[in-house]
TrEMBL record:
Gene3D superfamilies: Glucose-6-phosphate isomerase like protein, domain 1 (3.40.50.10490), Glutamine Phosphoribosylpyrophosphate, subunit 1, domain 1 (3.60.20.10). It is found in: Cytoplasm. PROSITE patterns: GATASE_TYPE_2, SIS. Its EC number is 2.6.1.16. GO terms for biological process: amino sugar biosynthetic process; carbohydrate metabolic process; fructose 6-phosphate metabolic process; protein N-linked glycosylation; UDP-N-acetylglucosamine metabolic process. NCBIfam families: glmS (TIGR01135), PRK00331.1 (NF001484). SUPFAM superfamilies: N-terminal nucleophile aminohydrolases (Ntn hydrolases) (SSF56235), SIS domain (SSF53697). It comes from Candidatus Falkowbacteria bacterium RIFCSPHIGHO2_02_FULL_42_9. One of its GO terms (molecular function) is carbohydrate derivative binding. This is Glutamine--fructose-6-phosphate aminotransferase [isomerizing]. CDD domains: GFAT (cd00714), SIS_GlmS_GlmD_1 (cd05008), SIS_GlmS_GlmD_2 (cd05009). InterPro entries: GATase_2_dom, GFAT, GFAT_N, GlmS/AgaS_SIS, GlmS/FrlB_SIS, Ntn_hydrolases_N, SIS_dom, SIS_dom_sf. The lineage of its organism: Bacteria, Candidatus Falkowiibacteriota. Residues 304-443, 475-616 form the SIS domain. Catalyzes the first step in hexosamine metabolism, converting fructose-6P into glucosamine-6P using glutamine as a nitrogen source.
Length: 626
């Protein structure tokens, strides 16, 4: 996710801002920028790529001011000395590709109001249209720029009061840092749904989206709550609620060191990313429902809506975990949209002679958007005249650019090599595809509404599953010395059995195989004995009885069973050695809830086996070679 740093105080802002951005580099980003207030105006620079590119840019920019802003060879520019207020940002593209124009800080028509924003403004399109009609000139494709223009439009001489008004108009999420060229000694911060912390140092304040950017200066912090706005000067700060009432806040003490702070206090990125899933799923779905109409709004597919209507066959491609999300999509598409769907490894698809035509849609799934095999599959399908659609996390990546249209999964940067939050978001996006394809065809209004309502409830249900981490750790403690595991599932959770196995083997190096439950008796059950435990995925769904029979077959051969089932299913306790419960949801959504305990199990097993969880051996985060 993007990073925000802001500074006001006794020191020069620019070096502190750049240092803060570097402390946030671990979060992943694709462009960066700064804006500092000087005696003569606001100095801003932006660059695509790493912070060093931004530093180079700052060095190269011919300062519009009488003396250079960046001191060279130790010479301290007097002007820079007075530049003691500023904001900076690392952007991980969501609306619009990583370009300088789209990088933050964004500004208004007159270059007076500057802001850095994390989050997504859902109603930006409608606000942009309204403001453009009033003569505002937009230069970026971002949702953020509308905030600057809206502030300009409503500005009444007091940035704080204007921001309070503007925030009431915005729908969506934000962490914001804002300054105005003509309001001296003022830096504003605001938060709704996206973290923002204020660091209180001696004669200076550092605001940041993440304590990692603050910790070097101070461990005294104030965490803003949703709806709160901070008005900060070089000496003092005031915090207001959404109705402009001043509120008192506690000062907290950060206990982490720098390394821990980068992981937000989590021991590993993988665990952090597993625990981010309530938010990452909410971000994937945000602004994409028309709940009453039982429909979804996928802006990225609007241009090809007619071709989607004419599609009579879908092929989903991807590699590894991404392909497994596709397999869940196959069950959904056929059951709810009635469109014949097949799933292939991207690396197989590119070499086989699949039967394709212009009514075939190829859906390519990729977190990175750079997987060479998946990209080649897209190119092959395009060549054959198919409609190519992407489900991609990284904005502006090769697959996002190569496909005819697509939907970003918005799960935020995934740093651990093993895919976790990106996978559950991919499934969530495929649910949206299913509703879109389905409502154009056989799906009723009531079914569309039911799916949407269940999607809305998902983040809370994921939170309930995450609360089982300690319980899952205790299970892992009993099993971590076993050398082989079977993962079993059927129908929607058949791909999740494979996902559970891939997660376990890639980070703990313990051998694990996924099986379709019904396949066991056709061969694999010969493996089962007291040293070969099985994880049986058996939610209370349309195939529960079948899964239960598989579980009993394993028990009859002396195999140990860890069962995952739906809350309320007490009966299974008599048969399984361990039981993990997930909340009730629609059958098609159980894969998302079932995946979470499997991720936690793999993580705990890897820790107990002493593995390098975030960087397992022999693996790369993005596989850009065939
Ligand atoms: C497993 C994992 C990999 C990726 C695969 C595709 O945890 O991360 O199997 O899913 O390499 O990568 P993307 O999604 O970037 O195309």
């Amino acid at each position: 996710m993007c990073g925000i740093v802001g500074y006001i105080g006794k020191n020069q802002a620019l070096p502190i801002l750049l240092d803060g951005l570097k402390r946030l580099e671990y979060r992943g980003y694709d462009s960066a920028g700064v804006a500092v207030k000087t005696a003569d105006g606001v100095f801003s620079a932006k660059a695509i790529g790493k912070i060093v590119e931004l530093e180079k840019k700052i060095g190269e920019i011919k300062s519009p001011f009488p003396c250079p802003l960046v001191p060279r060879s130790g010479r301290r520019a007097p002007l820079l000395k007075r530049a003691n207020t500023g904001i900076a940002h690392t952007r991980w593209a969501t609306h619009g590709a990583p370009t300088e124009a789209n990088a933050h800080p964004q500004t208004d028509c007159q270059g007076k109001i500057w802001l850095a924003h994390n989050g997504i403004i859902e109603n930006y399109q409608e606000l942009k249209t309204r403001l453009a009609a009033k003569g505002h000139k937009f230069i970026s494709e971002t949702d953020t720029e509308v905030i600057a223009h809206l502030l300009e439009d409503l500005y009444d001489g007091n940035l704080t009061a204007t921001l309070i008004k503007v925030l009431k108009i915005l729908k969506g999420t934000y962490g914001l840092a804002v300054l105005h060229r003509d309001e001296p000694n003022k830096l504003l911060a605001a938060k709704r749904g996206s973290p923002l912390v204020i660091g209180l140092a001696d004669g200076e304040f550092i605001i940041a989206s993440d304590a990692a950017a603050i910790i070097r200066h101070t461990k005294q912090v104030i965490y803003l709550n949703d709806g709160e706005i901070a008005e900060i000067s070089d000496r003092d700060f005031k915090i207001f609620d959404a109705d402009n009432n001043q509120v008192d806040k506690n000062v907290d003490q950060i206990e982490w060191d720098q390394a821990a702070a980068e992981k937000g206090g989590w021991p590993h990125f993988m665990l952090k990313e597993i625990f981010e899933q309530p938010e990452s799923i909410a971000n994937s779905l945000r602004g994409r429902f028309m709940a009453e109409a039982g429909r979804v709004k996928l802006g990225g597919l609007e241009g090809v809506a007619e071709r989607i209507r004419q599609t009579n066959k879908i092929i989903i491609v991807g590699c590894g975990t991404a392909r497994l999300a596709g397999l869940v999509g196959e069950y959904m598409m056929e059951e709810y949209a009635g469109v014949p769907t097949e799933v292939d490894y991207a690396h197989e698809f590119r070499y086989r002679k699949a039967v394709l035509d212009e009514q075939t849609a190829l859906i390519a799934i990729s977190q990175s958007g750079e997987t060479a095999d998946t990209l080649a599959a897209v190119q092959e399908a395009k060549e054959k005249g198919c409609l190519t659609l992407g489900v991609v996390n990284v904005v502006g990546s090769s697959i996002a650019r190569e496909t005819d249209a697509g939907v970003y999964s918005h799960s935020g940067p995934e740093i651990a090599v093993a895919s976790t939050k990106a996978f559950t978001s991919q499934i969530a996006i495929l649910v949206l595809f299913t509703v879109m394809f389905g409502r154009q065809r056989q799906m009723s209004l009531a079914t569309g509404q039911r799916i949407i309502n269940e999607l809305i409830a998902l983040p809370d249900k994921i939170r309930q599953v995450l609360a089982l981490n300690d319980e899952i750790k205790r299970v892992a403690e009993k099993y971590y010395k076993f050398k082989n595991f079977a993962f079993l599932g059927r129908k929607y959770n058949h791909p999740i059995a494979f996902e559970g196995a891939i997660k376990l083997k890639e980070i703990s190096y313990v051998h694990a195989e996924g099986f379709a439950s019904g396949e066991m008796k056709h061969g694999p059950i010969a493996l089962i004995d007291e040293n070969f435990p099985s994880l049986v995925i058996a939610p209370l769904d349309s195939v529960y009885e079948k899964n239960y029979s598989s579980l009993q077959e394993i028990k009859a051969r002396g195999g140990k069973v860890i069962a995952i089932t739906t809350a309320g299913n007490g009966k299974i306790k008599a048969a399984a050695d361990e039981v993990i419960y997930i909340p009730k949801t629609l059958e098609m959504l159980t894969p998302i809830l079932v995946t979470v305990p499997l991720q936690l199990f793999a993580y705990q097993m890897a820790i107990l086996n002493g593995r390098d969880v975030d960087k397992p051996r022999n693996l790369a985060k993005s596989v850009t070679v065939e």
